[in-house]
Design a protein that fits this description.
single chain; alpha+beta; 4-stranded antiparallel beta sheet; globular
Length: 166
């Protein structure tokens, strides 16, 4: 029988991995819908400031290294896999730290979602397009949202930790 790792609050590693898996499934499900119903470049206005689009990002955040010639696909895949392994280890060690573990699990789910895209397609599928007066924020996806929320929670967790230490 497998041993479950519980933190001080009784939250298990499996619970955090379950959260990461839920985010991963939501990410991949939405991308399958976009790939099935939209051609590259298609756009559907939803509000005056939001469109659903289909964009392919062969780079990293904000299309960093998108035109690097193809090597970046495997580079970012390797970084994503390494980061995922580190995050699972962090979750195992800190499962009881709720905000920290929530942040890490959110980043994990998003990172794995984008790694799957890189391996499967050679690019990440983005589809959420926010804009204002002709200026468009770079399109993103559910995985990117999970990573961003996770990063914000990591910052909050550290600020709270420093505050408690005073």
């Amino acid at each position: 029988m497998a041993r479950q790792t519980f933190g001080a609050s009784g939250v298990s590693l499996l619970a955090w991995l379950g959260w990461a898996l839920l985010l991963l499934v939501a990410d991949q499900f939405t991308k399958v819908l976009i790939m099935g119903y939209y051609q590259l470049g298609d756009s559907t206005p939803v509000t005056s400031f939001f469109n659903i689009v289909r964009v392919h990002n062969s780079g990293a955040a904000f299309s960093f290294l998108a035109s690097a010639g193809g090597w970046q696909r495997w580079f970012f895949t390797a970084i994503g896999i390494g980061a995922a392994l580190l995050m699972v280890w962090l979750l195992k060690k800190h499962a009881g730290q709720k905000l920290f573990a929530f942040a890490i699990a959110s980043i994990l789910g998003g990172a794995v979602g984008n790694v799957i895209d890189r391996v499967r397609y050679g690019y990440v599928v983005d589809f959420l397009d926010f804009h204002w007066r002709g200026w468009h924020f770079p399109a993103f996806n559910v995985a990117d949202s999970a990573i961003t929320i996770g990063a914000a929670c990591l910052i909050l967790d550290e600020l709270l930790r420093v505050r408690r230490g005073r």
